[in-house]
Each structure stands twice: as C-alpha cells, then as structure tokens.
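Title: Comparing notes on inverse folding

I've been comparing how different people in this forum approach sequence design from structure. To keep things fair, I'm posting one structure and asking everyone to reply with a full sequence. Here's the target:
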C-alpha cells in the first residue's frame, strides 16, 4: 500500500505536471527534489515572506543549510505554518544566529573522543560510526548542525575502511551504531557492503542504525533495503519522531516493513520548545509509536549546540513529562529522559524522585498517584562478597561468558574486589596540599 493524498498531489504537480504516484513514492525522486531554497518553499506552500524577513532567513541559511523532502513538506499545514511542528523542525529561524552563552560547536566532544575519523568511541563496548555526512531533511534542532550538509555526500571509502579496521582491532566493541548524517542516504549496495564487512568481525554482536528516514522520507524503507537488513541480523534501528503529527500512513508503512523484518525499533525524541514540550503531546506520541511497534527509547534534553537556543526547555519540563508518563501508561511506552553531558560524559538519565526515605530495614517510596508506601527489606539477605572468581561462585556464570571483569566509575567504587575508596577530581587542592607536605 502506498499513499498519495490530495495535498501531496498538489505539491507534486508544482514540480512537474506529469508527476505520478510512482515518482512521488520513489525515494530517489524525493531526494532529487528536496527543497533547498526559500523561494521554492514559498511557491509550494503558497506562502510568502516579506523582504526584511527573507534577508534574515537567507543569512541563517548561509550558516546552516536548508533541505526538506517534498514528503515532509506535505505534512505542513500552510494555513497556520508558523506554529506548525513540522515547519518549525524543518524551516530556519533567524533565532538560530543568536549564540547563547553556553553554546558550543561540539558540545558532546564527539570529535575529541574520535580515535579515527568517523568513529566516536566513548563507551567501553560500543561506538558511533558516521557513514554519511548528509540527510534528506536537515532538522533545525540537529546537534551536529555545524557538521551535516557541508561535505561530500558519499563518505570516502578509505575513511570507512579505516573505521571498520578500528572496530576490527578493538575486540571490546560489541555494538556498532551506524549514524551520520543519515546512514540511509547511502545506496543499498553500499550499505550491504558495510554490513557485510562488519559482520565478518566476530566480536560485533549488534549493529544499530540511527535514521530519521521513517519520519522524513518513509519511502526510503523499500522491500529491497529491508531484505538487505534481514541478511545481516541482528540489526536494530532507532528513528526520531518528535510529534504525533509525523506518524502518517506512509510512515506507518515504513515501520511495518521494518518490524515485519524482525528489526527491533526504537525512537529518540528531542524535547523542543514550542513543538513537543507538553505532557499530552508526548503521551499521544508514545502511544502512536507503540501502536506501530516502536519502543520509545530516549527523550533528549536539547543539547548545547550552537543555534539551538530557541529550542531549549528547562529540565523541569522534561521531568514534568516523565511524571506524566511513568505509571500513567504502559512501561514500554516510557522513554528514558537523558541529558547528554557537555564535554563528552555521555547520556545521564534524569527522573522524578520516587525514593522518599530509607531506614535500616525499610524503604519509603511514593508512586505516581502520590501514595506513600513502604517496602520491607529481607531480614536474612546475605549479599555476595565478590572476589571476581566466577569459577568458584555459586551463581554459575561461565568464565568465558564474562570476558575480562573491569569496573568503571561508581560501579568500581561498589566492587568488592577493588581497593579504591573514592573518586577525586584531578588537581584537587586539598590533596595537592597533602603531597606538598
Ligand atoms: C548515544 C551514544 C551511544 C549509544 O548509547 P546507548 O545508551 O547505548 O544507546 C554510543 N556512543 C555515543 C558517542 C553516543 O552518544
Ligand atoms: S536527521 Fe539527524 S543528523 Fe540529520 S539533520 Fe536530523 S537530527 Fe541531524
């Protein structure tokens, strides 16, 4: 089933009178006809900006490029376009040029944590692998705003091979996230090649895609693409719906194809001022997602990237949304709200507090209704003192299943086998004085 509604037909006809459904639903046709300038958008939506505004918009575009697929454009309601959640995600605002005090070009230090070009290795067992520099639609709230769209569309094969070699030579990497830009901008053959190469590496257990195609260009999810994914299982895919309006018959169809191919689907939303900063909108969104077999995975606090000032909300808004979801709806419909730590600390989950207090044998908790309750801790629980000797342990984990046991951070403070008693910031003055004595 492919869908081609009246508004879409009208837009298609403006490109050329003989566009038919099969062009419109051809992803390559869509990419060839992405809207990259203001005048085309005005014609297609039948709207217009005055000279002053247009000048400001042009200035914004000179810094951050514009690209909208005809499909995504067709979701905009021209009657009320300025408040439209799709318009606001896709169309520039002069506010992007106001740089906030704390904004940075690379707030997540993705470039600093990059051992070879195209790879960010931040967490112990998984890497981000950027295999495309472009997207079909440039999200105005993109955290990699300064980077996407300014390079060649096909990443240099040498660079990709270098990335694959890095993964090959690091046996600790068991999960590879293919990202970009949008990795599904690459051709089927190219993707097949990358997946084949990655699958030759025995320690790569899981391959994940991060792609916004199901939202902005669902026709990219073709039977052929899905057949390629199927050859290389386990493949996971995370997409990026931000507003219930984005779930359309076409996007449902794309999600159905992916889910039917056995690809576990997740969604990463960004909390955006004036777009989805409302508990009711978020609830509607997560319900629509799970109806389509997509599990809400993360809700991101908007990053401190340059040009995103006007999109940022308070953290309180995010916690309020979580308060409205946890307990109020299915557990699997609730994403984890995270702040991606500036400076490269990774994602930090943030939640309302449920633990009210604690005694030597009881915890005091509150639930979503405001009921305060107690949980009596077991009297005879004997915690295992772990010496990392799995072979001697009653829990029967096979030593070859654990690999090397390495504790990091707070988990290291907790580990019985570690001698460390505290974590101290570098250049701590107090300790500096001790050494000086
Ligand atoms: C988000 C992210 C990952 C994946 O994190 P998960 O919590 O496993 O989804 C990996 N590397 C980097 C650099 C990331 O930002
Ligand atoms: S699809 Fe992703 S990488 Fe591309 S512009 Fe949007 S947020 Fe950025």
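Reply #1:
Here's my take.
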């Amino acid at each position: 089933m492919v869908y081609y509604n009246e508004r879409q037909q009208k837009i298609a006809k403006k490109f050329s009178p003989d566009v038919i459904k099969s062009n419109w639903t051809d992803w390559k046709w869509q990419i060839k006809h992405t809207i990259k300038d203001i005048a085309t958008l005005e014609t297609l939506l039948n709207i217009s900006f005055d000279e002053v505004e247009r000048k400001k918009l042009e200035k914004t575009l000179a810094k951050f490029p514009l690209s909208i697929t005809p499909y995504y454009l067709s979701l905009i309601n021209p009657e009320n376009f300025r408040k439209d959640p799709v318009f606001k995600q896709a169309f520039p605002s002069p506010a992007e040029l106001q740089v906030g005090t704390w904004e940075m070009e690379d707030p997540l230090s993705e470039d600093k944590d990059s051992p070879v070009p195209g790879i960010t290795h931040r967490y112990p067992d998984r890497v981000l692998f950027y295999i495309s520099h472009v997207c079909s639609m440039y999200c105005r709230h993109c955290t990699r705003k300064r980077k996407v769209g300014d390079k060649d569309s096909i990443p240099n094969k040498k660079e990709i091979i270098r990335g694959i070699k890095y993964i090959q030579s690091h046996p600790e990497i068991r999960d590879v996230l293919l990202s970009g830009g949008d990795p599904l901008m690459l051709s089927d053959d190219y993707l097949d090649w990358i997946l084949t190469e990655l699958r030759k590496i025995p320690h790569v257990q899981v391959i994940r895609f991060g792609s916004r195609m199901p939202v902005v260009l669902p026709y990219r999810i073709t039977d052929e693409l899905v057949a390629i994914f199927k050859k290389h299982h386990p493949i996971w895919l995370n997409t990026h719906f931000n507003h219930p309006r984005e779930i359309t018959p076409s996007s449902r169809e794309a999600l159905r194809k992916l889910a039917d191919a056995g690809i576990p689907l997740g969604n990463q939303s960004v909390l955006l001022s004036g777009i989805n900063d409302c508990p009711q909108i978020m609830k509607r969104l997560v319900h629509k997602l799970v109806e389509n077999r997509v599990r809400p995975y993360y809700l991101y606090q908007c990053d401190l990237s340059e040009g995103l000032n006007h999109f940022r909300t308070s953290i309180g808004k995010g916690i309020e949304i979580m308060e409205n979801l946890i307990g109020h709806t299915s557990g699997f419909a609730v994403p984890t709200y995270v702040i991606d730590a500036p400076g490269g600390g990774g994602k930090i989950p943030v939640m309302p507090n449920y633990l009210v207090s604690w005694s030597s044998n009881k915890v005091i908790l509150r639930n979503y209704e405001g009921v305060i309750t107690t949980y009596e801790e077991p009297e005879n629980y004997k915690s295992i003192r772990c010496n990392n000797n799995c072979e001697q342990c009653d829990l029967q984990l096979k030593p070859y299943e654990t690999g090397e046991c390495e504790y990091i951070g707070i988990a290291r403070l907790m580990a019985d086998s570690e001698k460390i008693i505290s974590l101290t910031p570098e250049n701590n003055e107090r300790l500096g004085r001790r050494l000086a004595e």
